[in-house]
Amino acid sequence: MLLAALAAHGAAGLRAVHINHGIHSNASKWATHCRALGRRLGVDVRVLKTKVVRSPGVSLEAAARDIRYALLAKELEPGECLLTGHHEDDQLETVLLQLFRGAGLAGLAAMPPMSPFARGWLVRPLLSCSRAELEDYARGAGLSWVDDDTNADESLDRNYLRRQVLPLIRERWQGVGTAVSRSARHAAEGQRLLDTIARTDVERASSGTALFVPALRALQPDRRRSPAAWTAYKRPWHHRTAPS
């Protein structure tokens, strides 16, 4: 609604994309709801229907997310921004789930407010807003929405965390969403610093497609095994024991 208001005042190029995964029995009704809301707001809505195919060891939710973002990437024109509705509670859940999985700084940084995506950018403008704040706004603005009843399925980790664990945490620490989001930003800053150091280490130890072994051995062990160093430079590395 906020974006539609901006578009009405001259912000051109606003459009919406809804992905129908075809998983839920009400998926077609949800697509119809999105089209109707788009007509009400004067926003063009494109509905993309797909079929989710799971690979061995991949959850249904992860497979749906992968195909969803792949389709959205194809829709994005050069320089466009894809805006999603992720909010502060989503960030809190993501950080905790990453922590339970033993993630490093990159995982604990969770969702950045803005990042490169396909030929444009992925932007999450609502990360500083809580679910309760957004629901209050939606009710005050007279908006209608669809509740996904699969959100009540507590066999899914995120739903269990949201419905069983976080209410107890919030009873004790009411500002936990804001605090954990701040921790995620600190983790993102730390990861960016590590990436910068890793790139510097690789540049000092590289000669074309070769790595100078003595230069690597001179690094501290944690810097030698830094994954950022090798993901930053996707090359078929060769080793040299002396500079050429």
Structure in words:
With 244 residues, this protein is an alpha/beta fold. Helix content is 51%, strand content 13%. The strands form three sheets. Strands 3-5-4 form a three-stranded mixed beta sheet, with no helix packed on it. Strands 6-7-8 form a three-stranded mixed beta sheet. Strands 1-2 form a two-stranded parallel sheet. Helix 4 crosses helix 8. The longest helix is centred in the C-terminal third of the chain and has 30 residues, at 176-205. The chain starts with a helix and ends with a strand. The mean pLDDT is 88.
Give the key terms.
3-stranded mixed beta sheet, alpha/beta, 244 residues
Summarize the structure.
This protein has eleven helices and eight strands. The chain is an alpha/beta fold and 244 residues long. The strands form three sheets. It has a three-stranded mixed β-sheet, with no helix packed on it.
Gyration radius, in Å: 22 Å
Shape: globular
* Binned strand content: 5-15%
What fraction, in percent, of the residue positions are helical? 40-55%
Average pLDDT value?
Answer: 88
As laid out across the biggest beta sheet, the strand order is 3-5-4
Supply the helix-strand structural class. Answer: alpha/beta
Instruction: Tell me the number of helical segments per DSSP (H or I, 4 or more residues long).
Output: 11
Number of strands: 8
